[in-house]
Amino acid sequence: MNQKNWTRREALLGLGSIAGAMAFSSCAPSTNRAPQKLSEEALAIEPAIDPKTLEKPDLKIGYVPVNDCAPFAVAWSKGFFRKYGLNVTLSREASWANSRDGLIFGRLDASPVVSGAVTNARTGAEGARHAPLCAAMTIHRHGNAMTMNREMWDAGLRPLQEYNGDLERFGGELRAFFEKRPLDQRIWAVVLSSSIYEYFVRYLAASMGINPTKEFRIVIIPPPQMVNNMRIGSMQAYMVAEPWNTRAISGNEGVGFTFAQGRQIWEGHPDRVLAVRESFIDNNPKTYRSLVKAIIEACQYCSKPENREEVAKLITDRAFTGAKPKKPGAPIDKFTRPGIVGDYNYGGFDGRERLIKTPETTLFFDLPPHLATVPGDHSTFLWQSQSLWLMTQSVRWGQLPEFPKNAEEIARKAWRTDLYREIATEMGIQCPQEDYKLEPAERFIDRKAFDPSNPVGYLNSFEIRANAPRSFFLS
What we know:
alpha/beta, 5-stranded mixed β-sheet, 13 strands
């Protein structure tokens, strides 16, 4: 294993082409691509709540052009916002950093953020800007994947399931690939620092005996720029939400293949959460309830099998993902459908179709029986114990000096299960009565269970850890 120390200059040499590509893309004119007018269907909805009874009925809500904007597209197009007395302006955000910072600086009233962003805003992990962010619900679980480039395929790497659980063999092949490459060809991109995506990349590598702080660099790239950067050779792998993994397979033949979905790293993990500032809840309690109800109802709509085809087509609109094929005659939802409907092709360069059909590809509300082991559990319910798991990874990779002594208090303030239960109960939705649960070993790729009653013991059980990870961030 390569044990050399990476200097800042050496790492930046490997980022030059990425920075150039991003600078080029930033020269494009900036236009507001968010939806401007409500559909006739939405306008036909009679509000069940009088906007005049809400403290702040006019809201600006962010979203990022990935598949998990689906509940926001549905709430807008089907009139769920209007039903609950809300007049919403949607804001199409360029990146997950923009989405988070829009909340912190007050530009946005609410926005989905990557799982980990709310917790880390509370802890200040890796120098994150301290802010009292809160979330009462998830937007979805799963829905993301890791893509590897053609060069990694040619080196012999294959989708994770083809290793049949032999992580040692895969680890050897991955290590051999990186050891033969110069600094600028050991790049793995994710969408946000100190997020579950970064933790998954590190967790995967470490589970195979590879120290991610020594063998490759992790950089931050906005989702829509992932495929283009891989095409020009700026990165060898990335992790992002759909449809930007499928785009590398069926939209840009020869660019990449899906190595693994995030659910193969941790089955049942939360991906996005609906975030607001704590002051928004305090100052606008009725408005907040309306907002959460609208998004829960939208998530329920997205979750129903009979609606998924429609949802996959809806989010191809230029206002949402804009992910439409240019080839004449191709299905409009060629890129968005696999992640929403669940007909997921991992791709490859040997002519084989690696199709896996399962609604578990993205979970918006209903959970499959093997995941819904707690009465009343469903995808939009946040488990505070999963916030503790995120904190263990912050400490593991040196983003926090130690596990917070007030971790449970942080989780309680950041992930508002108390409010969710009240709101869901008003909607007739049953919820779990506990905030913590054991994550069984079979849910994780390394078969290591997470017991929230002993997070420090869990953290200390990992042999591979980092004192100070060296990530260089571009946004």
